[in-house]
Amino acid sequence: MKNIKIFLLTLFVSIVFVSCDEDKWLEEKPLDFYAPANSFETASDFNSAVARVYERMGRLMHTNIVQALALQYPSDVALDNHGIAHELNSYRDNLIPENNRVRGTYTDAYRIIFDCNTILGRIDNENAIFPDEKVRLQIKSEASFLRGWAYRLLGILYGGVPIVLEEITAPKRDFVRDTRDAVWEQVVADLTFAEQNLPTQSELTEDGRLTKGAAQHALTEIYLIQKDWDKAIASASKVIDSPDYALMTERFGTRIDEPGDVYWDLFRRGNVNHNGEGGLNTEAIWVEQYEHLVDGGGTPYQITRFLGAVYWQLTGDADGKPLFFGHSSQHGGRGIGWLIPTPYVLWEIWDDPNDMRNSQYNIIRDVKANNPESAHYGQYIVAENTFTKFNNKYNRWWSAIFAKTAPVGNFPEDIIADPVTGATNNGASSTFNDNYYFRLAETYLLRAEAYLGKGDKANAAKDINTVRARANATPVAEADLDIEYLLDERARELCWEEQRVLTLMRLGIQKQRVDQFNEMSAGYIDDYHKLWPIPAQEIERNTEAVLEQNPGYN
User: Is residue 453 classed exposed, middle or buried when 0-12, 13-18 and 19+ CB atoms within 10 A define those classes?
Assistant: First the structure.
């Protein structure tokens, strides 16, 4: 009995002691699995986390292809061939709060923001061990940039959105919208911190990571949005005047011995990175990375498939037989003709027959039928009207091959089904290449836009003509220069690289340009579509505060 009493007394004291420190007693201490408490302790942990954010950014801008293409159309350069009721061809009918593209873009951008907040909120903890402060600062700067760039996307598409700057560790249902101006200020703050602390291009040791030049380029666009012309000019000038960057004006790279030109070289496999396998590319500022058949090498950009024409299904008028033996490397792979270039970008913008960007190497407008069984074998399919009876209103089966979006004649070996003919397997649908986010030619055009906004047409023309000179195009006269001309020049130089919808929306002229140049979507964008709607599910889940919808949406 005495022993039992002692045991009960001991148990009682223990219970009292534990109950006095219940929080500590209940605290989980993960020892053999990953949890927030033990996942951010070393430089490697943080490096892996920021690498994941880079991957998410690539998915948002490129590799989640159907969603990414919503940033290309409806615009002056592209439409979706499936008809006005399909996807986002008609903003009036389909740009609604319940739309998958509206929801996916919003949530993907916030996923980037939340991940960056986690990194930034934990990186200065005393238990976070780094070999030196330089490494810590670089990762902080990358996370700041990527958060700012995600807010830039949200600000252009949705306007004022909730600004969240801390890691969220519990359910939160009381988000409220900040003003659009507040969003731009936050983007400037994040990008400015990045600019001050990121390495220069010459200091960078790993392709694809951010640099001061990338931050300066990004800041230029935000200053344009704020109409702070002097800051935009100064920011762009830092990039343009840097010894790390220069326009590529001579042939270079992995396929220098093949017929082509320097603009063609810029987009060949192995040439896109600043320090690519084809040598130095001083025009590259920030590049999305892809390594074929490498674990963790990323997802390839499938614009090759979606923009590529369905030439391989064409039949000839003479005998009804296929004009081509199938899809092939020399003709840009296996296109499905989902994203269709408008006549504007195919024909109307080209103001100089000598413009390199419109050369036979860069926009391939005619090819020869290569099926030996066809009566049209060896004939040019356009020049000799081999398929005039084919219903081709929106050019799905044939428009042109944009060589910058496809590894023409250079698909990876495992994609080639027949090395003799160049026939490809069904995997011939991607660039299999690194892809530009920022290229110096755009920096010149952004600075030209700032000069134009300031009323300085002389300097705006100089910047545009620097880009045109590389393309062997006639200089533009100051008298002919306005924002319409600048948009034409952006289309000539940057088509399929820039997210054209974002460019038009930030300038507030998407409706005007679509009505003027896009036969499919003309008349289907209204004034209130200057902003996308806030996704319905975000409003519905936000039960403890009002997350206001943009005007015009129910």
Answer: middle
